[in-house]
Amino acid sequence: MSLGEFDLIARYFARHAARGDVLLGIGDDAAVIATPADRRLVIAMDTIVEGVHFPVGTAAADIGYRALAVNLSDLAAMGAEPAWMTLSLSLPESEAQWVAAFAQGLFELADLHGVALIGGDTVRGPMVITVQVAGYVETDRWLTRSGAKEGDLIFVSGSVGEAAAGLSVIQQSGPGAAASRSLRQRFLRPQPRVELGRHLRMFATAAMDISDGLLTDLDKLCAASNCGAEVDVGALPISAAMREMFDEASCVDYALAGGDDYEIMFTVRPAQVALVPAGCTRIGAITKGKDVRCIRDGLPVTVRRRGYDHFATKDSAP
Ligand SMILES: [Mg+2]
């Protein structure tokens, strides 16, 4: 990057870490962290690329927010409590206004979850943002994708399909109605389910966050757990905003295949159902075998789309 690189870092990213466990933060060759002996460190990293994971022209504050949100969602799916992050920022130019807005969006979400930025790097190149997050989970209490068993019930948090629908609205520069604004926000500012993940770690048998699409991600959970699943299409939590803008078939397509929701999908033993908090919806059950099937009113249904790449097939999106 330009001569201004160090100025940029100092001005927008080097904040005093408010966490007592950060012994040495930004400014030296590396950070030093104090870790307690009775907890495990959980680490995740996700990269987002302009034109691949978010449209060209997305506001810098939204990019900053989203870059951290997708990572916190992975920690949430593990039942972990977020603590720190590092940031790798590749930008075509070091434009101060853009970097200031990016940092504002990033820290807005970081402050909500008590996450300290402890290091990173800036380079000149195509717009690529990598965030690595780390957090804690109690010994032997982390969630995985691999613990689901036949008879477990499948739940999902919040509503599904809104983020993919919001992206299609953004890509088509669709109407500015209130419903479309709320859908666009779902794509631009995903809300990682950290608190839910912390609760689920006490009783869920398996969990993962929905990033690629509900059915595609359920395929992964079932493969990891060596089981199958049945999803009741009629039970999918589809929001009023979705129903206002799209017909039933498109709502179902977005809900099953859309991705980018960053909701948590999890499984519980039937005896533990009372522990599932409000705001989560039962969508199906874990079965024998390896197939993930869909039903409606008790009968098998064929699904039009199991998952798709928004940017490769935007013309064919529902
Ligand atoms: Mg994930």
Can you walk me through this structure?
There is one protein chain. With 318 residues, the protein is α+β, with helices and mostly antiparallel strands. The chain folds into 2 domains: 5-138, 60s Ribosomal Protein L30, Chain: A (2-Layer Sandwich), CATH 3.30.1330; 153-307, PurM-like C-terminal domain (Phosphoribosyl-aminoimidazole Synthetase, Chain A, domain 2). It contains 9 helices and 13 strands. It has helices at residues 5-13, 60-77, 96-112, 162-171, 178-188, 194-200, 214-225, 240-245, 248-257; strands at residues 22-24, 32-33, 39-49, 81-91, 116-124, 128-138, 153-157, 206-209, 228-232, 264-268, 280-287, 292-296, 299-301. Helix 3 (96-112) links the parallel strand 4 and strand 5 (116-124). Helix 2 (60-77) runs parallel beside helix 6 (194-200) and helix 4 packs across helix 5 (178-188). The longest helix is centred in the N-terminal third of the chain and has 18 residues, at 60-77. It is globular. The protein binds magnesium ion. Magnesium ion (MG) binds at residues 74, 77, 208-209, 211. Magnesium ion binds next to helix 2 and strand 8. Belongs to the thiamine-monophosphate kinase family. Mg(2+) 1 binds at residues 46, 121.
